[in-house]
Amino acid sequence: MYDYHIYSRLKKYAKEQKSFHMPGHKAHGDFKSKFPDATIDVTELSYSDNLHCPDGVIAAAQRDIAEILGAEKSYITTDGSSSGVYAMAYCASKRGNKIIVFRNSHQSVWNACKLFGLEPLVIQGKESDGVLQPSDSEIIEKLLSADANISGVLATSPDYYGNVAPLARYREITKKYNRLLLVDGAHGAHLTFGDKKKYAGTYADMWVDGAHKTLATLTQGAIVNVNKTELIEHAEEALSLFRTTSPSYPIMASVEFGVKYLANNPKIITRAKTAVEEFKKSESGFTVYPSADWTKLLIDFKPLGMSADKVLSQLEKKGVFAEFSDGRYILFYLSPMTDPAELNALKKKLGAVLENKKLKNTYKEKPSVPEGDRSYSFQYALRKNCEWVELDDAVGRMCAKNAGIAPPCIPVVVSGEMITLAAVKALSQAHTFGLKDGKICVVKKW
């Protein structure tokens, strides 16, 4: 059994100390009555250790986490997975000025490329059942074999839809060409428990676990992991740049708790997975997306002829709040902490909503994400002056700011790509991000 080092230490001293240090709430008065755990919200003290140079309970927690996850080094972060993505991109920038990324990469990936002057080589998998799939390994090998300036691959696995990339094959290719395999595994921290072949850490040189997404961890809690010794120095330097200097101790404690709770209680995972399988088997009238990740329960409303947006609106009136609707699918984002009784309640409420005759024939086809048309580079577009134009006037212009479909925020066009008619049609038919009053940002003509 693993001990909860950080939480135990915080609780021990919470009863004894008088607060003559930050934070300003002092765990007193109305604040404490509304936030009962305020007593463990402390700063760097003699007993609480320091995240940026740990040698006490935080160091012990990180060693245990690394052992559980199979990493050479693991680092807690209270800034979400984004700071980990920045750290990976920082390490990549030391090896080359280009990096292979997926089109459905998180916003932090594109931001990291901006920060470090990395040219993202965007690869895009085929679409299946209205969902982009992970990219084929052949295109990765083709790119790496032709360009020594590509530092490696920054893959997303699993994605919001639970698609797991062929990381074993990616690993073979990156090793062959002596490049880095970096994985944004923000949605897959739980996979190390029982699904090792799908877990990013089984293959990656460096990866990020978004602990708060699927473990018993407070929001913003994440873990940056390194399996390649030569990356450790740069990774630690990067984390010193991108992690806050005032980390939340409750979040740190919860990251350690989230990992160790499942390591100490594996039956919790079995119970949740069994409940999910029973839910799927009992609902023969539903079409469920064939996710490779059991925590991503996606119901397809196209076969039912219903708008997923309208179904979700009705569910919310019944107190059911899903992760998102993309117009076709509703994503019920589960975790090992999912209560089987709540799944049973979901089943009943969903069944009641689907009896609503007003929802029949409300489905509208979800636009596909077209292949990008890259004529210039991402970095080139960033350097140029830009302007906002109407979507219909943007065909043939160069995109200056990423714009795409939300949720789950997949860029239809990336900076440096030429805006096609297909891209305009896709952006005209969906909830979007990156547009302003219906206009898109393009590189200004001379």
The fraction of residues in strands falls at: 15-25%
**Range of helix content:** 25-40%
Quaternary state of the chains: single chain
Number of strands: 20
Q: Based on CA inertia axes, which overall geometry fits?
A: globular
Distance between the termini: 66 Å
Task: Describe the protein's topology.
Elements: H1 5-14, H2 29-34, H3 57-69, E1 73-77, H4 80-93, E2 98-102, H5 107-116, E3 119-123, E4 127-128, E5 131-132, H6 137-146, E6 150-156, H7 167-176, E7 180-185, E8 206-209, H8 211-214, E9 222-226, H9 232-242, H10 249-264, H11 267-282, E10 287-288, E11 296-300, H12 308-317, E12 324-325, E13 329-333, H13 340-354, E14 373-374, H14 378-383, E15 386-390, E16 403-405, E17 410-413, E18 417-418, H15 421-428, E19 432-433, E20 439-443
Parallel strand pairs: 2-3, 2-6, 6-7, 7-8
Antiparallel strand pairs: 1-9, 4-5, 8-9, 10-11, 11-13, 12-13, 14-18, 15-20, 16-17, 16-19
Helix pairs in contact: 1-10, 3-10, 4-5, 4-9, 6-7, 11-13
